[in-house]
Amino acid sequence: MLAKTVKNKVEARQREYWAEISVDIENAVKDHDPATAFQIIRRLRGN
Prior knowledge:
The longest helix has 29 residues, at 2-30. It is elongated, with a radius of gyration of 14 Å. Helices cover 87% and strands 0% of the residues. The chain has one domain (2-45). It starts with a helix and ends with a helix. The protein has 47 residues and is mainly alpha-helical.
């Protein structure tokens, strides 16, 4: 029961995180700032 609750909370937070990151990338692209967009993507890849 607890493990399932924790799993659901983690998955929900991951979805929120990816949504936030997606918005950040979209805003960087809209602002014609590819360096920031690529920096966010590199950070996600761990490079």
